[in-house]
């Protein structure tokens, strides 16, 4: 259908006088339907057309996985060219891919740069294939401001929050790499990414709006269509945001508990000093929508001699009484310089026995992708590693000059 766009007078999202420099194209990835409509309105599209165009673009971007406006053949050729001149749907690019012996795939992704000539920052996403399901672990921030002492990401100071587009972009790129778009010839019922966990780098509840908006896009039935029940948001315990997460995000919730006394948890998850265990568990009891069919997952990393005694296991069971809960025991994944060791296997089994006898099923999570540093808590982006090695090189240069 022809369109009556008039971009000669209203290019990109703001009117330009002849003296002003040309504007960079606006990336529409991650905009909500309303925001996308506003962007099209600002671009000069007549009001009566907007709803239909938003639907067509939504389908092209999130259902068919298209990147190039030229391929969006449901739009007229003329409109495709005009949209392509004003907007992009750029997503992160894969810098490296590592494949574990167990099939886990870790991608180092470079985000789209917002400064010309400066490469965008990097984050990691991990895909974990299992029998009958495939889980994509997504990052919410570059680095993390929290400093959990057993977590590698916690040693990386925050660079910044990811935008909604950068969060959704991780799923799009994973589908590219896995060949999971409808035109790949795969049966669309046979999905590769069936579940999402917000368990990559960062604390999702410290980037609330962007995570919420991204997950709304991911679960939109006319696009990526992953139900909120297949999305788990993991938090280290940002108590004041937990109720909002239930009301406004409505995903499954996982809590990084890791300690059963405030004394131990203060050391492992320093945020506990602000929001101690009792307050955290109260917030869990009141999590909107929690029920036996929608249990909260409690993650518990097994650290040798720190939190792995039988008394700890019994206290864990006691603390969780009355909360519809699942327990995930996670063998600690070491990283270079980490100050802890993983509990012995027999200790983990004894701990698991106590938990099992209290009625919690199959709680030990097998570490995946350890050989490629893709397991929980091992993620740390190359940007920071590279910066560290650059610093080291400069120091070494300075030292050699001083000699
Ligand atoms: N910031 C959020 C989500 C990202 S961390 C949170 O803390 O919940 C994802 C999960 O990996 C958390 O349960 C975290 O406690 C766990 N984790 C971090 N470092 C780990 C390590 N070295 N070994 C095993 N699990 C780890
Ligand atoms: Fe941040 Fe989660 Fe790692 Fe803690 S465990 S430092 S909250 S990413």
Low-confidence blocks of residues: 1-20, 382-403
Report the structural category. Answer: alpha/beta
Strand % is 15-25%
User: What is the number of strand segments?
Assistant: 13
Question: Short description, anyone?
Answer:
The chain is of the alpha/beta class and 403 residues long. It has helices at residues 33-42, 47-63, 77-86, 164-178, 208-219, 239-249, 262-268, 277-285, 310-320, 345-357, 382-402, and strands spanning 26-27, 87-88, 93-99, 105-110, 122-130, 133-137, 141-142, 160-161, 195-198, 231-235, 252-256, 296-302, 325-331. The chain is built from 11 helices and 13 strands.
General description of the model:
- This protein has 403 residues and is of the alpha/beta class.
- The protein folds into two domains: 26-88, DNA polymerase, domain 1; 93-384, Aldolase class I (TIM Barrel), CATH 3.20.20.
- The protein is built from eleven helices and 13 strands.
- It has helices spanning 33-42, 47-63, 77-86, 164-178, 208-219, 239-249, 262-268, 277-285, 310-320, 345-357, 382-402; strands spanning 26-27, 87-88, 93-99, 105-110, 122-130, 133-137, 141-142, 160-161, 195-198, 231-235, 252-256, 296-302, 325-331.
- The chain has a nine-stranded mixed beta sheet, covered by helices on one side. A two-stranded parallel sheet has the order 1-2. It has a two-stranded antiparallel ribbon with strand order 7-8.
- Helix 1 packs across helix 2 (47-63), helix 4 packs across helix 5 (208-219) and helix 9 runs parallel beside helix 10 (345-357).
- The radius of gyration is 23 Å and the shape is elongated.
- Bound molecules: S-adenosyl-L-homocysteine (SAH) and iron/sulfur cluster.
- S-adenosyl-L-homocysteine binds at residues 150-151, 199, 203, 234-236, 256, 299, 301, 330, 332-333, 376-377.
């Amino acid at each position: 259908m022809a369109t009556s766009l008039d971009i000669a007078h209203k290019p990109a999202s703001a009117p330009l006088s002849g003296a002003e420099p040309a504007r960079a194209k606006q990336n529409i990835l991650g905009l909500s339907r309303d925001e996308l409509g506003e962007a099209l309105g600002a671009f000069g599209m007549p009001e009566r057309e907007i709803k239909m165009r938003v639907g067509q673009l939504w389908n092209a971007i999130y259902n068919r996985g298209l990147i190039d406006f030229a391929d969006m053949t449901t739009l007229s050729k003329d409109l495709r060219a005009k949209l392509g001149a004003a907007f992009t749907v750029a997503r992160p690019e894969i810098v490296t891919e590592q494949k574990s012996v167990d099939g886990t795939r870790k991608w180092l992704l470079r985000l789209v740069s917002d400064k010309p000539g400066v490469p965008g920052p990097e984050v990691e996403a991990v895909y974990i294939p299992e029998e009958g399901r495939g889980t994509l672990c997504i990052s919410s921030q570059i680095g993390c401001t929290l400093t959990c002492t057993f977590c590698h990401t916690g040693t990386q100071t925050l660079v910044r929050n990811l935008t909604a587009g950068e969060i959704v972009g991780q799923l799009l790129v994973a589908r590219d790499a896995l060949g999971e778009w409808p035109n790949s010839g795969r049966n669309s019922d046979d999905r590769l990414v069936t579940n999402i966990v917000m368990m990559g780098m960062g604390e999702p509840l410290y980037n609330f709006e962007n995570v919420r908006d991204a997950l709304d896009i991911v679960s939109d039935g006319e696009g990526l269509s992953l139900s909120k029940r297949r999305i788990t948001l993991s938090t280290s315990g940002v108590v004041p945001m937990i109720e909002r997460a239930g009301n406004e995000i409505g995903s499954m919730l996982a809590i990084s508990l890791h300690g059963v006394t405030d004394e131990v948890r203060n050391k492992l998850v320093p945020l506990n000093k602000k929001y101690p265990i009792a307050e955290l568990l109260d917030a869990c009891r009141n999590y909107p929508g929690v029920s036996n069919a929608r249990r909260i997952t409690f993650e518990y990393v097994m650290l040798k001699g720190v939190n792995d005694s039988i008394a700890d296991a019994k206290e864990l069971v006691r603390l969780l009484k009355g909360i519809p809960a699942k327990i995930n025991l996670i063998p600690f994944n070491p990283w270079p310089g980490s100050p802890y060791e993983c509990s012995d296997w027999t200790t983990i089994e004894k701990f698991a026995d106590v938990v099992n006898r209290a009625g919690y099923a199959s709680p030990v999570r097998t570490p995946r992708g350890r050989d490629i540093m893709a397991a929980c808590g091992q993620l740390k982006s190359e940007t920071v590693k590279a910066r560290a090695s650059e610093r080291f090189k400069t120091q070494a240069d300075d030292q050699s000059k001083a000699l």
